[in-house]
Amino acid sequence: MPHTQYKIKPLQHYAITRAYICYLLLISVFLCLSFNSFALTNVGDLKSQQKSEILFNIHAYYVEDLALQQSFESSQQFEALLAQLDPYSKYLNEQELEALFSSTNGRYTGLGIEVKQQDQKIVIINTINNSPAALAGIQKNDVVLAINQQPIVNKNIDQVAQMIKSSDTASVILTIERANALQAMDFDIIRSEINIESVTSSLSSFGIGYLAINSFSNHTLHDVARHITVLQSNYGSALSGLVIDLRDNPGGTLQSAVAVSDLFLQSGTIVTTKGRFYDANQHYRAKKGDILNGAPIAVLINENSASAAEILAAALKDNHRATLIGSQSFGKGSVQSLIPLGNGNTALKLTTARYFTPSGQSIDGVGVTPDVAINQSGLSQIDKVVIIKNEQGSDDPLWQNSDVTDPLLLKAQQLLTMK
Q: So where does this one cross the membrane (predicted)?
């Protein structure tokens, strides 16, 4: 049958990590950005022509040349074929596709919680600033026990996400277990639109800037440049150094990671991608111009730093532009592309390439190794900024009341002041 040809659009690292590892539960019709291959959309209900189009694109563009049969007698056979794909490839229905577009612009409708599966439990590792979950009092390390009074014992993240997604009302009741609390607590959280601030920053009295990048969206390049300009203006001179905090950053788009990397590099390779079709093979190089004019950089990473965050960390490390501090990163080294289907209202999100660091290494399943290894659980965004604010002697009681210590940040500042 004839197939409409589209120019496919690279999506790489849409705030996605592999199943069961931290990603945003942004609850709307499209719940989150990372599900197992075709797990929550009933692809068995697709028409024969739609299935044929999906298989055609897999044959043409998937990163591996799979021996997929061209015909199938049942929906179960079709789903079994799709199960051979990696966890990042997924059919997107109309609602999911719209939510994906919104996510790249930093807009979500949901609760605003970031979770991971740990010891068969669903654990909160962060809440988005000013999100419904944060305002309701959900805290880091809270354990989700039930959703709308339905226990989630032995359920994985995909299943939990589906339970929240299928809630009949705008509000979702999370039953939470909290350390040192005598009993479980219920939080009635109303879903609402969340605008993600991809970058936050602060300044120490030593002229060292602190830049936390929370995700890589269409706005991140502009936000990073704007924050650095403000930091330099507040200091009254060029920064003496910069800490880039990528801890718990689950990723974003390839283009954003490349553009942010290029801000700090005068030359050299940023990342290369390799796949089976021509356009999947790209070599991204830095253009002349360093926004910091050579001031030293320290990058903080942890086990939840993934995809686009790993591209930036590896680009700065391999080009000897920054010192990496923390623990081994997550290890997501694949590129996803968005392929429109039918009339363009649905799409196939497909792994079309793998990326390689400037030194030629694939970090897929391995991660980026820090120069200075310090193991530490990821801090919430507010905790990250607290350290810098305290050093400035801020009069804000919010900062004064915190006794947070951050060995990664302290080590970064030590290294930067020695340069």
A: 20-40
